[in-house]
Amino acid sequence: MSPLRIGLIVSDDLDYGLDLANALGDASDEVTLYLSMTNLAWYLGESPNASSPDLLLELLYKKRLVPQNVTVRLFHFPRMRDPRSLLAVTRLKRMIEADSLDVAHILMGPGELWIAVLACWIRDVPVVSTMIIPQPNLGEKLPVFVLWMIAKLLTLGSELIIVNGADQTDVVRRLYSVPAHKIVYISLIPRIAAAKWAEGVREAELQTILFPGKAQPRKGLEFLIRAQPLVTEKMPNARFLIAAHGEDLPRCRALVVDESKFEFQEGFLTSAKMAECFQKASLVALPYLSASTSGMLTTAYVFGKPVVATNVGALPEYVQEGKTGFLVPPADPERLADAIVRILNDNALYRRMEENARQWVCREQERIAMETRQVYLKALAGY
To answer: 64 phi and psi, to 5 degrees?
Structure first.
């Protein structure tokens, strides 16, 4: 099997790009990872205005977030409405052309206009694009029609579209008129890079429930807070670790009835701090009201944590009921509390779920890398 020259282009979801680069870099292929310099600086805990490209690359390799055989190149986009972004896209396109790739793989989140433009401008090699969130979640800041136009633009510039949820294949076909043969379902890769931020081995704190990430109304944090008295009734020593930032956090925090049961890590947390929170947790709770997939869910598995999540979006595809966690209906504090208590009160079940989560990570990383490579070959064959 001849090695491929693969280019991974990612602006916002750096974890996704790093995880895929790690998985593909383990093979004999040549992988070049193109990252947003600004977002990489924030990801590494550095100031974007005070960090040189050389410093950021040094930190990236020093932390072993990517293997040495993966080449990393940095680009910079101004704000979305800034016309200078056209020049930035042109520079990135030339950078990609100079690397003589066999295939370009774009990982695009909602509203990333210039990444979608890039897909249409790359013509020398086939473009495969992962649409991370095909259908806008509740509460997106950009108007739905704008998000639709940007996603549609991405599909026009892509030979194949990858989605991370089985039901999303129909969503992309229906919303963007993409033929079924151009849509491929591949599961979300485990968040391997997140674990590399952990500083040593740390035992989980007994009966600690973690809510990680953004506190947006669609994330359902209020229902975890409403579940706390029900959990405490059966598990008096249970504690809730809220490692979050976002506009819904003040409203949710006002709902707390017993501050002694909560620890709030507010604000934007560094990757190292978030890794520490996952290490401390016994269990991860994701009480979402709306979701596509969830990087936080696969991060939990990387740290060997059982998950209680809601039955929304593609989350049921990632929670093996009774094996890696439990699914509950959204906006149901009683069912949420029952599932949390069921796991944490049964040590044998808890240990089995820990082991199952770790096994899932090992199995999925290798499988997803292999399936992604097959998509590249399909794109090359039809180009």
So the answer is: 60, 35
